[in-house]
Amino acid sequence: MKAGIVGLPNVGKSTLFNALTNAGALAANYPFATIDPNIGVVPIPDPRLEIIHGFVKTQKVIPAMLHLVDIAGLVRGASKGEGKGNAFLGHIRDVDAIIQVVRCFESAAGGEEITHVDGKVDPVSDIETIELELILSDIQTLENAHSKAKRSAKGGDRDSVNRVKVIEALMPVLESNKPARAHRFDDPDLVKACSLLGLITVKPILYIANVSDDDVNGEGELAQKVRAHAESVGAVMVPVCAQIESELAELDDEDKQEMLEDMGMDEPALGRLARAAYMLLGYQSYYTAGEKEVRAWTIPHGCKAPQAAGVIHTDFERGFIRVECYSVDDLVEYKTEKAIKEAGKLRVEGKEYVMHDADVCNFLFNV
């Protein structure tokens, strides 16, 4: 799972990235502090892995991974190249989802003033600024692709015909300042054609309200504005205090837990962010468990067994025979795979089996 973190300069975006990835020094307090995208790979907190490990003795435990790309602060005119905008926008095209960090604090801890690029703190305006730049970038993408697609479509190329249909359906949507995700295609061929255009605003978006340390649950006025906007567009909002997260990242486990309790928090931001991203993208986890490793794998809801096997290795999908599986709950109840099998709870499923969240699997294949 790969997500790109975007936002205006000085909203706490890189502070949050550094905290989540424990990357060390915080970004400087000025626009374009991050010239090249920082890329971090962080483990997704998953209590079920530890449950499995409690019953299956193994050499190592491998969680699912969240790839985070910290993209330098966007500004008005980014789609036209302002502030290195085109280069930064290009990095967003490679991610599965967009995480927009929105400033929901007036000043930093200790009362330090942090200049807002627009001179005022207005989270909804910030959201609109970023979205407009992404929309303008997508309009350029469609304009560049349209003439070429039309020429190829005249020759009867089916893919090009579909591409033209998608472009001509999406252009008026974008020109009305709406993201491409606001338009739904029912035809699978058009869905595929849309996915190949490299549009940014077709990607799902998650808003992080970067709140002050006295509003960790995002109940303040600024955060509530972001929450209301997210609900109005069918997006997800997660309140996070990047400053607190940066402090937590420097602590050992015992001190970290003490600080969380003092702040009235159950966990650091990564857990909440990962769960929100999973929900946004429609993902779930299944597990493999053996003597060498216990491991989590990420798949979309509705994924069938051969495709789930292919996440491990393409040979598993190509030569899929069947899958033997049970649930994490079964393991908790019966303690061992042998006992699960004796109780008749070990399921043997074929190619049409739709994977369940928390399946523990053993794939059989032949190539």
Features:
14 helices, 367 residues, six-stranded mixed sheet, three-stranded mixed sheet, alpha/beta
Model regions low in confidence, pLDDT < 50 over at least 5 residues: 23-35
* Number of E-state strands: 12
Helix content: 40-55%
Distance between the termini: 28 Å
Largest sheet: 6 strands, mixed
From the helix content, strand content and strand pairing, which structural class follows? alpha/beta
Total helix count?
14
Q: Beta fraction of the residues? A: 15-25%
Cα Rg: 23 Å
Task: Tell me, briefly, the overall form.
Answer: flat
Question: Would you list the SSEs in sequence order as H and E?
Answer: EHEHEEHEHHHEHEHHHEEHHEHHEE
Question: Biggest sheet: strands side by side, in what order?
Answer: 2-4-1-5-6-7
Average predicted confidence as pLDDT: 88
